[in-house]
Amino acid sequence: MRNLYKYFILLLFLTFSIKAFSEDNLFKKRLKEAKKGDFVVFEYNKLYSTLSVFEIDTENNRVILEEITIPKESFDKKMSFRNWMEKKANGHTSWTMYEIDLDENKIIDTYSVSRNCFIDLKDQISITAKLLDLDLNKLLDRDRKKIGPPLSSGEVDRRAFWQPMKYIDGKRIKRAKFDVYRSIWPEDSSELSLKRFDIFFDEGFVFPYFIEVNNGHMSYMIKGVDSGKDLKSAISFFPKRAAEITDMKKQADNLTIYVKNASRYKSFNLYAIDTSREDKIIHPLEFEMGKEKDLVFLNVNLKNINEIFEKNHKYRFVITPYSEQNIYIESRDLFVWK
Q1: What is the mean pLDDT of residues 120-136?
Q2: How many Cβ atoms are within 10 Å of 267's Cβ, its own excluded?
Q3: Model pTM greater than 0.85?
């Protein structure tokens, strides 16, 4: 279980596609209703890890989560977790941001603040796919963990439910109540094979407060030690990958130019540079635009191209976002007009 914690975000992510819920399941509904600055702090394996809502994009139905990790022994106990996060998390060992698509139930992009680079999650695709396919069911009262010794035969069970502790800005909340949801990992010879997950949510908070992983012999606990709202992140924005032209295809009456990582721009200017001419003449082009998630399609009518382009000349396309004229997106490959 020593490597379990590196999958923690993905363990939370399993609740995005739970079959036990309707189209919008529990965690997805709460993320949609969450506010920027909602946060929770977990303790596990001598680590503290904070998880917060950095941004909610209601237009594209996306959320950006921010996670910061520090060894428990390195944390300055004189500071509150809130102050530590807002003052650039001194001593952190990992600081990661995740952009999540709530429509497609997948992580769109991951950026490491501590390493100042994007992270490729392709190596974790298999585990993510299984997490998204797990069932999670709310436990009935009779199945929940109780406080006190086991009952004698025939004895009426009047024991209270066991509840984890709940903290808000360092203060313990008395008589906190939680619902418990359970899932069993499928048998797959992995470290998580056949492990049971019990996840504790309270009524109105976006994140769980407690996660218990049980293998039938031992339990491993990820417990919430603080939470709150209106956290002011030390990060001003989530970095975006540079937009790039990925392909150019003739289709029926159009030339379609595919632009990746450009959906954040509302409109563009499109130009074609005639690289076969010495004067490198630049032609502005009219087009119709379409979008699909992070992919933008620019469709140029071939009749218009035929009136402008010269046969066997090579052209390089350049796109500039209308709102940011200092950004130039150039095609790597040349387009030959025949």
Answers
A1: 56
A2: 8
A3: no
